[in-house]
Amino acid sequence: MASTKLFHIGIKAVIVNNNKALVLEDTGRYAGFDVPGGKIDENETIEQALKRELLEELGLTDFKTGELLTVFEREDYKKEGINLILIFFKVEANNFDVKLSDEHSEYRWISKDDLSEMVKNNEVRNDGVKVALEKVLE
């Protein structure tokens, strides 16, 4: 009998405003710029998880969830034999004041050219983040 592969599911928000996307730098747990999000808690819907994470990480409450951008399995994550799948959504938010949580040390609004430079310098967290950002910054 085949063994079952288990996954944690994480939700990620690629926030777009004025043809730029928001990226965050972690306080030190991980290298590279990422987009906001986190694991979906037990009995939580995708929308509830997205609302919770954006409030916790940015203080953001007013946004519109858009299209599914990509799904990515993080090869570098494995806890107790459980892998992590990240689901990236485009999120639109009007001008807002970014209020970083203690999880992040910096934020940037980046353009397509900024992303190209960040990729060249290996400053993007992983390929899932890269692909999702490329899709919104075309």
What does this structure look like?
The chain has 138 residues and is an alpha+beta fold. It has three helices and seven strands; from the N terminus they run ββββαβββαα. Strands 1, 2, 3, 4, 5, 6 and 7 form a seven-stranded mixed β-sheet that branches. The longest helix has 13 residues, at 46-58. The radius of gyration is 15 Å and the shape is globular. It starts with 6 loop residues before the first strand and ends with a helix. The relative contact order is 0.28.
Instruction: Compute the average pLDDT.
Output: 92
Sequence stretches where pLDDT stays below 50 over 5 or more residues: none
In which range does the helix fraction lie? 10-25%
Structural class: alpha+beta
Main beta sheet strand tally, sense and closure: 7 strands, mixed
> Which descriptor suits the 3D outline?
globular
**Rg over alpha carbons:** 15 Å
Count of beta strands:
7
Number of helices: 3
Task: Give a brief outline of the structure.
This protein has 138 residues and is α+β, with helices and mostly antiparallel strands.
Q: Which key features would you list for this structure?
A:
single chain, 138 residues, alpha+beta, seven-stranded mixed β-sheet, 3 helices, globular
